[in-house]
Design goal:
The chain folds into three domains: 124 residues, Aspartate Aminotransferase, domain 1, CATH 3.90.1150; 117 residues, Aspartate Aminotransferase, domain 2 (3-Layer(aba) Sandwich), CATH 3.40.640; 135 residues, 3-Layer(aba) Sandwich (Aspartate Aminotransferase, domain 2), CATH 3.40.640.10. 37% of the residues lie in helices and 14% in strands. It contains 13 helices and 17 strands. The strands form five sheets. Strands 6-12-11-10-9-7-8 form a seven-stranded mixed β-sheet, with helices on both faces. A four-stranded antiparallel β-sheet has the order 13-14-17-16. Helix 1 runs antiparallel to helix 13 and helix 2 runs antiparallel to helix 10. The protein is globular and about 75 Å long. The protein starts with 8 loop residues before the first helix and ends with a helix.
């Protein structure tokens, strides 16, 4: 049987030229491969460096050189209020009110700090519900929290198993909440499952959790900058995420947190620090902690300005373009990737990620027919030819076209690489 030929390179270039949202590829530094650019599909692990990031960091370094400590109080980008410069654009990305978000710490640290406030187990309700196969850091954090409160993870950390296809779907989550609802203190769920790329309905999961009498929290590491989130409207109690994936803020970037406005002035237990104290009275240096209303009240220490500088630069294209337009382009790119696989490469690749665009983001998780060794051989072949995805054990290649800098031509190059490997 003759396989249909892959599209010509000129066809992919035409799709890029006529796309309703022109690429912003020139605003990013694309890794090189040989005499050309790499086809980089790993924005779900580490986004590319915005060209503006260096200038943003240099601005901080220059102020440190010129005025030293006075940089805290000098200029529009003074360090005392620097974290506030990212609050509004970050709120726009995640669909929240400005006072509901804060950039601070790292993702897992934020998860622990917010669980101090929002995981309040009792003898009757000690349990946390999460997905089986979660990213290990989440499981470590949740298990340690259960133990810290004197409960047993064997019974009080409830892991929902996916179906035979590796996916969950809302019905499976709803069933688990219904079965365990009278024991649940917290439902902690991802926005996008990191291995499969399955996306979830945050508002519905929140509704189900609240109906069962539990708190609803989310790890949005693979969802922020990938999908429109509408966090405020979802009614979620809290969420945490990182900024180094789709938000392109650099390795180990300062993370983010959301606390719903209804908790802005709630008398919740928390670990307190000076930078979370009410800004109006912080410098009185009083002994009693009075939290700043909103998410900023969960801060502990003054923010790392050099760490926030790349985030400030990275948020600019999101603010300019808006998540709806980026999401629409993402769906076009991912749809093109799916089309090439199903039309030309179905004898090589199975797509793990849901086919329904509403149940996925930018990522397609792929398995190579033939098993793990074949999958790893294909992955290594692609990398050797300048096409970089990422590998997740035991047998998944993740390919994630980021709408700010990936193109239809990149995606065709991936398909050509698979076809060349198949041809041997």
């Amino acid at each position: 049987m003759t396989r249909p030929l892959l599209p010509a390179h000129s066809d992919a270039l035409a799709l890029d030229a006529h796309d309703p949202l022109p690429t912003r590829r020139d605003e990013f530094l694309i890794p090189r491969h040989g005499d050309g650019e790499q086809a980089y599909f790993v924005g779900n692990s580490l986004g590319l460096q915005p060209r503006a990031a260096r200038a943003s960091v240099d601005e901080v370094l220059d102020a440190w050189e010129r005025v030293a400590v006075e940089g805290h109080f000098t200029g529009q980008a003074q360090w005392m209020t620097y974290h506030e410069l990212v609050a509004e654009p970050l709120a726009q990305v995640v669909g929240a009110h400005r006072e509901e978000v804060v950039a601070m710490n790292s993702l897992t640290a934020n998860l622990h700090f917010l669980m101090v406030s929002f995981y309040r187990p009792t003898r009757e309700r000690p349990a946390i519900l999460m997905e089986a196969g979660a990213f290990p850091s989440d499981r470590y954090a949740l298990e340690s929290q259960v133990r810290f409160h004197g409960f047993d993870p064997a019974t009080d950390l409830i892991e929902v198993e996916p179906g035979a296809d590796g996916l969950f779907g809302t019905a499976r989550i709803a069933d688990a909440i219904e079965r365990h609802g009278d024991r649940l203190a917290l439902v902690l769920w991802p926005g996008v499952q990191y291995r499969t790329g399955e996306a979830f309905d945050l508002a519905e999961i929140t509704r189900l959790a609240h109906a069962a009498g539990a708190v609803a929290g989310f790890d949005l590491a693979h969802a922020v900058g990938n999908l429109p989130l509408h966090l405020h409207d979802s009614d979620a109690d809290f969420a945490v995420w990182c900024h180094y994936k789709y938000l392109n803020s650099g390795p180990g970037a300062v993370a983010g947190a959301f606390v719903h406005a209804r908790h802005a002035q709630a008398d919740l237990p928390r670990f307190a620090g000076w930078w979370g104290h009410d800004k109006a009275t912080r410098f009185r240096m009083g002994p009693e902690f009075q939290p700043t209303p909103g998410a900023e009240g969960w801060q502990l220490s003054n923010p790392p300005i050099l760490g926030l500088a790349p985030l400030r630069a990275a948020l600019a294209p999101f603010a300019d373009t808006g998540m709806p337009a980026l999401r629409a382009k993402s769906a076009r790119l991912t749809g093109y990737l799916e089309h090439l696989i199903r039309t030309h490469l179905q004898d090589v690749l199975d797509i793990v990620t849901p086919a329904d665009p509403a149940r996925r983001g930018a990522q397609l998780s792929l398995r190579v027919r033939g098993g793990r060794d074949e999958g790893r051989a294909l992955f290594d072949h692609l990398a050797a030819h300048g096409v970089l995805g990422d590998w997740r054990e035991p047998d998944v290649i993740r390919i994630s076209p980021a709408p700010l800098y990936n193109t239809h031509a990149d995606i065709l190059r991936f398909a050509q690489g698979v076809a060349a490997w198949r041809a041997g």
